[in-house]
Hints:
heterodimer; A: mainly alpha; two-stranded antiparallel sheet; 8 helices; 6% strand; elongated; disordered N terminus; B: alpha/beta; 6-stranded antiparallel sheet; 16% strand
Amino acid sequence: MRVISIAQESPEVSGCDEDSGVVRKVNLPLARREFLKGSGLLFGSLATGTLLAGLAPSSAWALELKKLSTAEGQTLMAMGRTLYPHEKLPDAVYALLAKDLDGAAAGSADTAKMLRDGIAWLNKSAGGDFAKANAKKREEIVRGMEGTAFFGTVRGQCITSLYDNDMAYAVFGYPGSAWEKGGYITRGFQDLKWLPTPSLEASPKPFLG
Amino acid sequence: MAKFDFSDDSVVLIIGSGAGGGTLANELCQKGIKVVVLEAGALQSQATFINDEWKSFSQLAWLDKRSTSGSWRVAKDFAGLPAWICKTVGGTTTHWAGASLRFQEHEFRTKSVYGEVKGANLLDWPITLKDLEPYYAKAEYKMGVTRTNGIPGLPGNNNFKVLHAGATKLGYKEVHTGNMAINSQPRDGRGRCMQLGFCFQGCKSGAKWSTLYTEIPKAEATGNFEIRPSSHVTRIEHNTSGKVTGVVYFDKDGKERRQKARIVCVAGNSIETPRLLLLSASNMFKDGLANSSGQVGRNYMRHMTGSVYAAFKNPVHMYRGTTMAGIVRDEAAHNPSRGFVGGYELETLSLGVPFMAAFLNPGGWGSEFSWWMDHYTNLAGMWLVGEDMPREGNRVTLNTDAKDQWGNYIPNVHFDDHDNDIAMRNHAFTQGERIYQAAGAIKTFRTPPYPSTHNMGTSRMSARPQDGVVNKWGQTHDIPNLFISDGSQFTTGGAENPTLTIVTLAIRQADYIAQQMTERAI
Lengths: 209, 522
């Protein structure tokens, strides 16, 4: 699969391993339509006025699948949202789950079959289209699959696909590495004001040279 | 750096470069003794450490195949990852959080103090706190432990403020930013803590003590030291008189090598150390080296652990700043009226979003799980760590169903929680939740144990050879020139984070080895 970043890589960053400290833009996947050779395509756009839309250079995202169809990718996205429902996480994040599972499917015929069978079961249980079922129904169906290899694979993949990307960092308010910015020694590591300040004995003043 | 010949049988060969091996190497080199260290992992540096949880995990963690069994929850949640320890130069001192507490006096004689505990294999250490005190002092000075040697405590971060507010409201008295081997001010050529918040990922500022950039370069400067990274030892060899003669290892190019030695010291952490002794079985030592007691691999301890996370109405940003600079020590004493023997510590802890997703509630899903992630910025966290019971059945064995990349049986780690561990964990969970409730938590969560970071006891120290693997110097009872130099030596685990005691024992062991060499006893 080709994912072309639409975030501008700063030249300082690309030249060495050490991060320059430049604040990166949110990295959205974008497959170029003209190159499309895959089996499926997932695409969408970030809702305007959201935090992420403000950080991303463009609100459009697109992502090409190698093995699974568009509909299968959409079913996996819906399963991801059922397992880990976050109103503030855009579909673009759940699409990363479909992308990673598609990658696994492309690498192993057994995995592809297991995923396709699981997806088919989800749709059958929903009476046609799992992604269109209501939240309660989707949760019921997914709960019924707990303990299966399919459930375990999708749930396990969610942990890294959904929570280890810069869109999730931005949504959950986690800045990641602080080294490039000099840590938090002068940037709020003890800025909590809504509780009493500990004694100097318990918590001495920081050494600032 | 010196370079020693493969056939040089005058060297002391140390396996592992972490808290035990790295410290022992430097101490010996300072005394003019020639040392070769074989380290399974690769060399990293402050510049190459990655402050990204998964990427750093791939860079530093020991990820060779392992298996698990037993009733502990880690076997279910992380079947192939019993321990979160490191394979890199500096070992797990790259990953440790810096908490440096001395054992308490009674923790060296738990069998005498706790009495018979059914299903536990308690034993008094052959040494006392008094024996170790001068060496603890040396270790604290070496490592620059805060609140010792006139070194100020670290400044508390937001996560500490929450812990402190709740704990003091609850009436706890000993609440502070801990005894940390992290510079609160510049010291020993290293800067002060920048409050980066990535203590577990290798300290990029070098404020946290790690053998990687303290003991190892100091040893190198003596001219008596050679370290070979990416060198995985597969076997310790011995002669017909039952003395060890050297080791066989795979070097960085995957080539099998043999290094001769006068003395071999094993410091591969408490899973690899007994595994190597077992893998080195021979016609003379059919059950593995130094295993006449049958205790090699047994009494595996991993500390009673658990975490409490709490959500508040207002932001905490717990990820900012030193991960573990915050402690409540009031529960550390032995007070059987609580329903268990031994004690525990409550220490601040935080995880980033990626690891919070992986560790908050392994296997968990649904809107309840999502709620916690949605409240990430408003969370505070603490780790519970206490003494667990040594048990003969909790052990590291060779799993003959699977082999590693070198063709050797992988280690299996079997662990069943003792009732005492469970009672202590429940008590600690309750007190942890009460602390956060006292600070105004809207919700609290009991997080089950992470893969073990404190691995101890699998080559225990004992006065009598039939009770354990090593004597009070860490010298194996069976083979005088074979030493154990890591936390495997621990007879029992204490409530305290083990690194300071590992370093202390290594300094003491170096004195003994030097003296024995001078006397030509070994």
